[in-house]
Amino acid sequence: MLNNKVAFVTGAAQGIGYAISEEFAKQGANVVLADYNPKITDVAAELGQKYAGKTLGVVMNVMDNDSIQAGLDQTLAEFGQLDYVVNNAGGGVLKPFAELTDDDFDKTVNLDLRGTFKCMRAELKLFLKQGSGSIVNAGALGSIYNPGGMGAYNAAKNGIMGMTQAAAIDYADQNIRVNCVAPGLTKTPLNEGGFLEKILPTVPMKRAETAAEVAKVYVFVATEATFMTGQTILSDGGVSVGLK
């Protein structure tokens, strides 16, 4: 159990981010749910009514340094420590490569890659002061084995995997771990519909992953995999190992 531990999850208002927050809460942790959507305060309050640990909702923009620092400051003011971070916030424009505009590319890379960089930098500074910490970033199976139309998204998610490795090596000897989880086809409010049905036949397990399933992977990597750092863990129903 994670009693008296504190977890911080970005992009936590819905989907995978919310599921990760709930998994931390189920295991007894105090959880900070961060999101740019103002409803995050209500989402956090509702989650807090279901489990024993405390929850805090923070309105935060991962592309703004001051907003990120304010979110971390709120966390320390409320709980006095931070043990685990999941940098989940992200999204992207999915188009064939030649159809991507400069704005499409910039929006996707700024949110996913630059946003994760900004969060990691602030989190690492906090963990260095504390003397410990664990970060898990959100990668994507689609950046390695992709169905097309993911040029900007691939650039961002591959960059996140590279940053994960770099930070892991920089701080491996300072009690700080940095890893990445790359979900496969996951059923969330953002990808239900035609895209989900189109890709489903390519999954050897012949079904989509649930947000609750991949949330368990994120929390395990953050909390239990104590000799793991710099890794990207695929949770993909077998896509990366073969076709069936």
TrEMBL record:
Pfam families: adh_short_C2 (PF13561). PROSITE patterns: ADH_SHORT (PS00061). One of its GO terms (biological process) is bile acid metabolic process. Keywords: Oxidoreductase. One of its GO terms (molecular function) is oxidoreductase activity. CDD domains: SDR_c (cd05233). The keyword Thylakoid does not apply. The keyword Thylakoid does not apply. Belongs to the short-chain dehydrogenases/reductases (SDR) family. This is Short-chain dehydrogenase reductase SDR. It comes from Loigolactobacillus bifermentans DSM 20003.
